[in-house]
Amino acid sequence: NYLEGKPLPTTQNFIVQQSLNNARPWLDNHVTQLIGCEIPLWSDTLQLAGRVDAIVEWDGVNTVLDFKLLSDIFPDDHLDYMLQTTCYALMIKERMDMICKQNVVFMMPRGGRTPQIDKKPNHVFFSELARRVKQFRKLIEEKNASS
User: Fold this and answer.
1) Could you report the per-residue pLDDT of 11-28, keeping only the tens digit for each?
2) Could you give the CA distance from residue 4 to residue 31 in angstroms, rounded to a whole number?
């Protein structure tokens, strides 16, 4: 709702309110245009589907934006998050013929801590994503063969 400029729902959940209050300055400073929120996506090529949190221009660059509400501890490794957003970028290209060159994972911790942003170009994750999709397909084939 915040990104879309809609009225914010009233909530008694202090954690949600605190996370949004901490996120606002970052979003206001970096999101230069909202392209869409909560868009269902799928890929015939990857045979995967999902719903992207947001497609935005982040500092003027088409970007897949994903929000993570975390406990008080930030994960050391954000690879899985980056693979998820890279997958969305490929789906966006396939479905919308739009190129998103970067991923932003916006990690909002509980407890009033400052958000952590991990911004990376998505092309660096293509080979690992391909490897994981291939591995997943192999597991599915093995499961189906044993059924």
Assistant:
1) 666 767 777 788 889 999
2) 11
